[in-house]
Amino acid sequence: MKLGVFMVLFGGRSLEEALDYVASQGLNAVEIGTGGNPGDKHCKPDELLDNETALKDFKKAVESRGLMISALSCHGNPLHPQKHLAQADHETFLKTVRLAEKLEVPVVNTFSGCPGDHEDAKYPNWPVAPWPNDFQEVLKWQWENKIIPYWSEAGKFASDHHVKIGLELHGGFSVHTPATLLRLREAAGEVIGANLDPSHMWWQGIDPVQAVQILGRAGAIHHFHAKDTTIDPINVNKYGLTDMQEYTKMLDRAWQFRTVGYGHDVKTWADIISALRLVGYDYVVSIEHEDGLMSVEEGFTKAVHNLRQVLIEEPLTEMWWV
């Protein structure tokens, strides 16, 4: 496996400055935002798609520093019930797929999105309970009329461009668990897979090792994020795992994102990495930083240190006893 980083961390630096810093830390890969929630600070698809010289310069900037691009990321909500918002994220996704093909990047990361509860809705509706029965009716309508049709078409577009889709399993979106990912994958094809982030598993009460096993056995892990979560044993009993307080209220929240090793110990992360190896994932572990208690540099360097203790960056080719 290779160690990488989601470059949105370094949005305050130019592309060249950010790449120099990443390379100086001995990493192998970068994940780059192309719009949507990650923004397009380091990569503007319109400029690169229309200019072959700019495209070559962009690719050279990465490769000349001994780095590779693990994924292009455009996390948004292409199923948003407000059509203009959905269309903007959809167009960003299409451009990102086309750019990934040109750059020979195999994965585009995004969210599944979440529709409303009827055609004239204004806001997404994320059902999280089987009763009252209204929720089941909403969920059925969403999957049959919005989620499966959209991703079947989007999946075909990505496949035609030789790109895989890594959906981040994130609360608030329709695909947020291993089960919902596999449901969509069965309907829309194997081009759909997970951009698996353990931090989102922990706060939903899902063991990331088991998530790796479930998805990995199906060949459904296309990319992997490295971010941690800590759960406050007192606050969780007050607010529950679906805590709706702002992330900034760190003292009172039931859970919060942390850098790798500061929510769960290195042994736990070793178990996750071992599970990835066991199911045949041999791609990039991409560090993401959303730790409100650490600066970007501190969180990033500590994550690098902790992951290097458990990450085997070169695959084993033979055993001593063979």
Automatic annotation (TrEMBL):
It comes from Paenibacillus farraposensis. InterPro entries: IolE/XylAMocC-like, Xyl_isomerase-like_sf, Xyl_isomerase-like_TIM-brl. This is Sugar phosphate isomerase/epimerase family protein. The lineage of its organism: Bacteria, Bacillati, Bacillota, Bacilli, Bacillales. Keywords: Isomerase. One of its GO terms (molecular function) is isomerase activity. Residues 19-301 form the Xylose isomerase-like TIM barrel domain.
